[in-house]
UniProtKB/TrEMBL annotation:
Family: Belongs to the short-chain dehydrogenases/reductases (SDR) family.
Keyword check for Oxidoreductase: yes
Domain of life: Bacteria
Protein name as annotated: SDR family NAD(P)-dependent oxidoreductase
InterPro entries per the UniProt record, alphabetical: NAD(P)-bd_dom_sf (IPR036291), SDR_fam (IPR002347)
Entry keyword set: Oxidoreductase
Gene3D superfamilies, alphabetized: NAD(P)-binding Rossmann-like Domain
Stored SUPFAM superfamilies: NAD(P)-binding Rossmann-fold domains
Keyword Oxidoreductase: yes
């Protein structure tokens, strides 16, 4: 059996990545912040599931996770660096400590974990890394003004790392979901925005499937979502930043 690591596996896109990698025959190391990660094995059958509860916004949490991987004494074939969060609201009002926590999870923690994963896979000259970023990487993100840049960082990181890892036989793919029906926007305190309703958003199972298909096809990136999402991403590559910022604010600006 091959082994796959998925961060943010207790919910949403990460949960679907874990479930679908299990269906593809991978043993799973699934990571989440809260105790609900311990239920992951109830949803995946026929493979080994190792749940890890760790705070990936901290160096200690990353080292705790990596110690689990090392104790398994098995090669890691797939790593999905997926855990992330947002914080909605006007930058004037949002809490700085919460923003710094988000940067610690979405950027610093990802880089810390990637360092371990990349060295491990380069030693073996094999492996595949899927980095979940966002269509928000393609636009300014008013009312999520720190979140969007964290996704741009991860997209640029993924594309650069991909080039470096080619000579080691390690693949790197970026998954850019459009708005997806998960806990994400509620957790970000965005219930009072258009993004706050899950009614119109993409199915996380579809987004995960597209990510995994692109990963195994060796693509550099993939937009996650339906045709409208892919059309919107293509449009965003042509519009000016001020126009995109106004368009994004229509969905992210609090209505109350
Ligand atoms: N949903 C969207 O519209 C959307 C669009 C574009 C990109 N994305 C990206 O997709 C990724 C997954 O988001 P999602 O929509 O699936 O969100 P979600 O349903 O809220 O799931 C977030 C996952 O991350 C885990 N997590 C949160 N903070 C953590 C921490 N400090 N340490 C370890 N794990 C932590 C959560 O664990 P607990 O459940 O235990 O808290 C959960 O498993 C994110 O990187 C996000 O930027 C989402």
């Amino acid at each position: 059996m091959d082994l796959a690591l998925i961060t943010g596996a207790s919910s949403g896109i990460g949960f679907q990545l874990a479930r679908q990698l299990g269906e593809r025959g991978y043993d799973i190391v699934g990571v989440g912040a809260s105790a609900r990660i311990n239920d992951l094995g109830d949803h995946i059958s026929g493979v080994e599931v190792v749940p890890v509860q760790a705070d990936l916004a901290t160096a200690e949490g990353i080292e705790q996770l990596w110690a689990v991987i090392e104790r398994l004494e098995r090669p890691l074939d797939v790593a999905c660096l997926n855990a992330g969060r947002s914080l909605g609201g006007a930058f004037l009002d949002t809490d700085l400590d919460e923003e710094l926590q988000m940067l610690a999870l979405n950027v610093t923690g990802q880089v810390r974990l990637a360092k371990h994963v990349v060295r491990h896979m380069a030693d073996r000259q094999a492996g595949r890394i899927l980095i979940t970023t966002s269509c928000s990487a393609l636009t300014p993100t008013p009312y999520e003004s720190i979140y969007g840049p964290t996704r741009s960082f991860m997209l640029s990181f993924a594309e650069g790392l991909r080039e470096e890892m080619k000579e080691y036989g390690v693949g790197v793919t970026a998954l850019l979901p459009g708005a997806t029906a998960t806990d994400f926007h509620q957790t970000a305190g965005m219930g009072n925005t258009k993004f706050g309703s899950n009614d119109w958003k993409n199915d996380p199972a579809l987004v995960a499937e597209q990510g995994l298909d692109a990963l195994f096809a060796g693509e550099d990136h993939v937009i996650g979502g339906d045709q409208a999402t892919r059309d919107d991403a293509a449009l965003n590559r042509t519009l000016s930043d001020p126009v995109k910022a106004t368009k994004f604010a229509q969905a992210s600006r609090p209505t109350t």
